[in-house]
Amino acid sequence: MKLTVLGKWSPFAPPGGACPGYLIEADGARLLLDCGSGVVAALHRHTDSHALAGAVLSHLHPDHFSDVYQLFNALRFDRYPAPAAPPLPIYAPALAPDVLPAALPRPESRAEFLERFVFHSLEGGQGRIGPFAFRFVPTLHPEPCHAVEIQTGGRRLVYTADTGPSEGVEVLAAGADLLLSECTLLEGTEDLAVPLGHLTGRMAGALAARAGVRRLLLTHFFTPRHAVKESLAAAAKEFAQVSAVDEGSTYEV
Fold first, then answer.
1. pLDDT at 82
2. HEC profile for 201-245?
3. Which helix H or strand E contains 126, and what residues bound it?
4. Residue 24 CA: distances (Å) to CA of 28, 33, 54, 69, 226
5. Neighbours of 29 (CB within 10 A)
6. What gap in Å lies between CA 106 and CA 101, rounded to an integer?
7. What's the average model confidence in pLDDT over 106-123?
8. CA distances for 79 relative to 17, 46, 110, angstroms
């Protein structure tokens, strides 16, 4: 299983960057994990939208889903006038089939949006797309959000999505080959972790240590002035096998 980082910034994309989005590949299948601003353009540097087997949207904050409309357009027009591809399965919050089409102004567009995607609820706790088996657990975040376990070929990747300190996320991450953890807060702002539902680098490192994961990748950096090196150094004091992600880079799970 391979992870390619399409975007790592929040709450908006800086010049040349993108909000959270990740391409997961295994056994010839491709999965999109979150779809924030700029993600679809980044995705097209590696593959096209029609190559996706499906997608997962961790929650309905715009920095994690706003490019779903660009994905919709790519699936409609990238191979036009060829016949439309089969509907793309998306695991998302239960409200997604109501919330996401509502941004489109015409009833015909809303209907086509719901024909282009088949939504499955994260609240079901588990799922599967092609070779990828999923488990989902709620995180600590103001907007309902789910961490994601992706398992295939005996390898496990766990994505915290957006979360403050969460026992459920820690249990999900236990023994994972790779923990992709959010790292939004600057060091010294731990008091904001619970009210804002985010982690510092040190807190992400401590989570990885308690969960006994093999490797930690930090992502979801606060735009545009996140002290990434400071967060990485703080995480490394808690857990040695840690790196900060680079957009466009690919990591083996």
1. 80
2. HHHHHHHHHHHCCCCEEEECEECCCCCHHHHHHHHHHHCCCEEEC
3. strand 126-129
4. 10, 7, 10, 20, 25
5. 17
6. 10
7. 96
8. 26, 17, 20
Distance, in Å, from the CA atom of 39 to the CA atom of 232, rounded to the nearest integer, reads 24
pLDDT digits (tens, 9 = 90+) for 126-170: 999 999 999 999 999 999 999 999 999 999 999 999 999 999 999
Please check whether residue 126 is in contact with residue 91, taking contact to mean a CB–CB distance below 8 angstroms: no
- What does the block give as tokens for 134? 């999923």
Torsion over CA of 163, 1, 29 and 90, rounded to 10 degrees?
Answer: -10
pLDDT digits (tens, 9 = 90+) for 11-63: 999 999 999 999 999 999 999 999 999 999 999 999 999 999 999 999 999 99
- The proportion of the chain whose per-residue pLDDT surpasses 70, expressed as a percent, equals 100
Angle between helices 68-77 and 107-116 (to 10 degrees): 80
Please give the pLDDT value at position 84.
Answer: 77
For the chain, what are the domain ranges?
2-252
What CATH class does 2-252 carry? Answer: alpha beta
250-252 sheet: strands from edge to edge: 117-121, 88-92, 52-56, 29-35, 21-26, 2-7, 250-252
Task: Give per-residue pLDDT as tens, 228-242.
Answer: 999 999 999 999 999
What is the amino acid identity at position 97?
P
pTM as predicted: 0.96
